[in-house]
Design a protein that fits this description.
Elements lengths: L1 H19 L5 H4 L12 E4 L4 E6 L3 E2 L8 E6 L3 E3 L2 E4 L4 E10 L9 E10 L5 E10 L6 E4 L4 E4 L3 H45 L6 E2 L4 E6 L3 E4 L9
Antiparallel strand pairs: 1-14, 2-4, 2-13, 3-12, 4-7, 5-6, 7-8, 8-9, 8-11, 9-13, 10-11
Length: 234
């Protein structure tokens, strides 16, 4: 009986030593997995990149409506790090986000365009956050604000000239009919008519003809799939 008890104790001690000296499990020894690396084959167009475009259709604040589509095309390739990321002839689509006609007394015509997509010749399409930076091809219009609102130039001088011209005509007619007194009355009437013409007529509309040069700025960086975009270069 005593021999059996001693044997049992020795067996238990050997089992305990074997358990304590066993190597740690693979789960405990495996380090935490590293974060995934950047997706291979991705190229980035940085925010603030400027792209020259040409409009494919006419746009006027007289006939256009908010939500109308805008179509343009790149006129020069965009190159970065010896790669052409946007070839010439790539289509750009957008929409009219805001439109306002010129007022009768004050207020200029305004047009706000946002570009929404870039369409490569092979059909690869990229979501585009783009705005108008400049319109070198438009006359009597300027760009204001960070969103790129196109605004018609002021016509104050033109309306003043109309009133003065009408007043001069009235003075000439009055002078013929009744001398200097008639000239004064005629000038007053003419000035009133000129002012009325200015108040009844709207300010000029913003009008962009087909082919108008527009400089677009990319507002946020764009990731391109190099396997799908026709990248030229390395």
């Amino acid at each position: 009986m005593r021999v059996m008890l001693i044997f049992t104790l020795l067996s238990a001690m050997c089992l305990a030593q074997g358990t304590s000296s066993a190597p740690p499990s693979s789960a405990a020894s495996t380090p935490a997995s590293a974060p995934p690396s950047a997706t291979p084959g991705t190229l980035v167009i940085p925010a603030g990149t400027k792209v020259p475009l040409a409009l494919r259709q006419a746009i006027s604040t007289k006939t256009a409506r908010e939500g109308d589509s805008v179509y343009a095309e790149t006129t020069f390739p965009l190159a970065l790090d010896n790669r052409i990321l946007i070839p010439q002839g790539t289509y750009v689509q957008g929409k009219i986000s805001h439109i306002k006609r010129g007022g009768h007394v004050k207020g200029r015509a305004e047009l706000l365009i946002h570009f929404t997509s870039l369409i490569y010749p092979n059909g690869y399409t990229v979501t585009l956050p783009g705005a108008v930076e400049n319109i070198p091809g438009a006359e009597k219009s300027t760009v204001k604000g960070s969103e790129g609102t196109i605004q018609q130039d002021s016509q104050t001088g033109q309306k003043v000239g109309t009133a003065a011209k009408t007043a001069g005509t009235g003075a000439a007619i009055g002078g013929i009919s009744d001398g200097w007194k008639g000239a004064g009355i005629g000038a007053g009437i003419g000035a009133g008519v000129g002012a009325a013409i200015g108040m009844l007529s709207r300010g000029s509309d913003v009008r962009l003809e087909p082919g108008t040069s527009v400089e677009m700025v990319i507002q946020r960086e764009i990731a391109l799939d190099a396997r799908r975009a026709p990248i030229i270069g390395k």
